[in-house]
From TrEMBL:
GTP binds at residues 265-270, 394, 425, 519-522. Belongs to the phosphoenolpyruvate carboxykinase [GTP] family. Residues 238-604 form the Phosphoenolpyruvate carboxykinase C-terminal P-loop domain. One of its GO terms (biological process) is oxaloacetate metabolic process. Keywords: Cytoplasm, Decarboxylase, Gluconeogenesis, GTP-binding, Kinase, Lyase, Manganese, Metal-binding, Nucleotide-binding, Pyruvate, Transferase. The gene is pckG. NCBIfam families: PRK04210.1. Its main location: cytoplasm. It is found in: Cytoplasm. The keyword Transferase applies. This is Phosphoenolpyruvate carboxykinase [GTP]. Coiled coil: none annotated. It holds the Pfam family PEPCK_GTP.
Length: 614
């Protein structure tokens, strides 16, 4: 068994509580070797991973990895929030008692690192010196070198982040053990995987994966689930699955900031990394802060809502990323960036990578190309059109590699939030943008956020899969308390952000075309929203919010038909009345929902009943 103290002394790790934690888990896991890592170790660890075949070269300064074929995505059904208070149980957080889960996970991890290295990753999930520092520090223990390399790209890594803590005990304890992936019973009644956040003890125990959010514990487990719980328990901030962007108006010299939540496949990353459309590019510039997580709090001095992205990198979906859809994402993984591609197609001879949507057609010469499982494309049977890359294939790169990253992305003070937007993929009911100026109605809208699911087969055409604030998979305490916490935090601001709901995905019911061109053009409704907040436009009042008039929305250079424009700037009252019934059933699931939310629901329902069909 390894000597933990020798390894920690060598690395200069002095925090006594961290040392105690490492010794404890070294004994449980039986690790043969312990290595404390920092960002400065990246080049050496990459070289070791290449020598071991854990990575393959993907051109200059880029790397390729392939995961076990059943270990390719976050596993919601195996993800558990465990605390010591049953009141923390919610509709979505799969709550279990900590007294049950901790011994179970310790049992699975006991002796699991015999003959292996335990890597110690001290990390920080915020720019150093932020007001939320006390919630941002963690130490992940892992048995997987590629996890270390991803963490170096996704978080700030080094012993300095734990050695100087004002309270040596104020760090998240995160333990990741891969397990024998081939024998864990993925998706069967015997599934042995457990991804547990013991939120009130600030302890994360993940067993049975080496992929993504199951293994990069600073990201979702700490940055979202644990942070959401910490923010609520401390009554001090919100930890949300939000993108965060800046919009610079070169004419006025002012920069606005917009945060927002979007369910899966609703355009969040493309929005976060978008460029201004050509017709507006001389005046406006969009800057990137983050595409996945934002922490929000109220500055006591200014009374403004502030936000920062706690992550240091991007763990992006490769599929459909190309020069047209998201050039900034594509160039964030250019040669020399140190990016890691996972589960894309790979050609060992040429060191090229490819995924569906990267180019209109796959490479014509399939010689040497391997699909995401490592099988030769050239050996496929005629007619085998299985994807070359896994639909959830990823790229990992640091924020600094994103071409339009904001100059102050690493500023610990955060940035003031002017607007909070929600957006789901819906084909008919939701207009292009509708603004909400009432706090309770804004929070209510976030709680009823959803995207279309395949409910038509069940006879409930048009029903959404609700995803409150886009946090359904990341809730760590009861939803009623969550709504109250939102009202408390944002309600404390003397200058509150404007809320809005956006939808880029309305379709023509006859031929199915998208009514709005989307992508870079999505800046236009955001500019209208900011103008509304500034009092520069007034919009048109409806039962569900304020909509832009055609004259107010800058459509310079946009090709759109009269029928499409009329549709995306109007409300289908009948569809909305149907939606209100679905919303009521959805909200009834949440125990202790604040009265303000129910009152907002009744106000919107009454306004819809009073609305005429015009």
């Amino acid at each position: 068994m390894a000597d933990p103290d020798k390894a920690m002394d060598s690395a200069g790790l002095t925090n006594p509580r961290v040392r105690e934690y490492v010794r404890h888990w070294a004994e449980i896991t039986g690790a043969d070797r312990i290595e404390v890592v920092s960002a400065a170790d990246d080049a050496r660890l990459v070289a070791e991973a290449l020598d071991a075949g854990e990575l393959e070269p993907a051109g200059e300064g880029r790397y390729y990895s392939r995961s076990y074929h059943k270990d390719t995505a976050r596993s919601e059904e195996r993800t558990i929030v465990a605390t010591n208070d049953p009141a923390d149980a919610g509709q979505y957080n799969n709550w279990r008692p900590a007294s049950e889960m901790k011994p179970l996970l310790e049992g699975k991890m006991r002796g699991a690192l015999v003959g292996k290295t335990m890597y110690v990753i001290p990390y920080l999930m915020a720019p150093p010196g932020s007001p939320l520092d006390q919630f941002a520090t963690g130490v992940e223990l892992t048995d997987t070198r590629t996890v270390v390399l991803h963490m170096i790209r996704m978080a700030r890594v080094g012993v300095e982040f734990v050695n100087d803590l004002a309270d040596p005990d104020s760090f998240v304890r995160a333990v990741h053990v891969t397990g024998e992936l081939e024998s864990l019973g993925h998706g069967t009644p015997d599934d042995q995987r457990y991804f547990v956040t013991c939120a009130d003890e600030r302890t994360i125990l993940h067993f049975g994966s080496s992929y993504g959010g199951n293994a990069l514990l600073g990201k979702i487990a700490h940055g979202l689930r644990q942070a959401a719980y910490d923010g609520w328990a401390s009554r001090s901030f919100l930890g949300e699955q939000f993108m965060l962007i800046g919009i610079e108006d070169r004419q006025t010299g002012r920069t606005y900031h917009v945060a927002g939540g979007f369910p899966s496949a609703s355009g969040k990353t493309n929005l976060a990394m978008m460029q201004a459309p050509d017709a507006l590019g001389d005046r406006y510039h969009v800057t990137f802060y983050g595409d996945d997580i934002a922490w929000l709090w109220v500055d006591p001095d200014s009374g403004r809502v502030l936000a920062l992205n706690p992550e240091y990198g991007v763990f992006g979906v490769a599929k459909d990323t190309n020069e047209a859809t998201n050039p900034n994402a594509l160039h964030s993984v250019d040669p020399g960036t140190g990016a890691i591609f996972t589960n894309v197609a790979y050609n060992p001879a040429t060191q090229e990578v490819w995924w569906e949507g990267k180019t209109p057609e796959p490479p014509a010469d399939v010689t040497g190309w391997l699909d995401w499982k490592g099988h030769a494309i050239a050996d496929r049977e005629p007619g085998d059109d299985a994807p070359w890359a896994h639909p959830n294939s990823r790229f990992t790169t640091t924020l600094a590699n994103v071409p339009n990253v904001a100059g102050d992305f690493d500023d610990p003070k955060g940035v003031p939030v002017d607007a909070i937007i929600f957006g789901g993929r819906t084909r008919d009911r939701e207009p292009l943008v509708r603004a909400i100026t009432d706090l309770a109605e804004g929070v209510y809208d976030g709680l009823t956020l959803g995207a279309e699911a395949t409910f038509a087969a069940e006879g409930v055409d048009g029903q959404l899969r609700y995803d409150p604030m886009s946090m359904r998979p990341f809730m760590s305490y009861a939803e009623g308390e969550y709504a109250a916490h939102w009202l408390r935090i944002i309600g404390a601001a003397t200058e509150q952000p404007i809320f809005a709901h956006v939808n880029w995905f309305q379709r023509d019911p006859d031929d199915g075309h998208f009514r709005w061109p989307g992508y870079r053009e999505n800046l236009r409704p955001l500019l209208w929203l900011l103008q509304l907040k500034n009092g520069e436009v007034t919009g048109r009042e409806t039962a569900v919010g304020i909509l832009p008039t055609e004259e107010e929305l800058d459509l310079t250079g946009v090709e759109i038909s009269r029928a499409d424009l009329d549709a995306i700037l109007s409300i289908d009252v009948d569809r909305w009345r149907q939606e209100m019934g679905f919303r009521e059933e959805h909200l009834k699931q949440f125990h202790g929902l604040p009265d303000e939310i129910w009152e907002a629901h009744r106000r919107v329902a009454a306004a819809l009943e009073a609305a005429d069909q015009g």
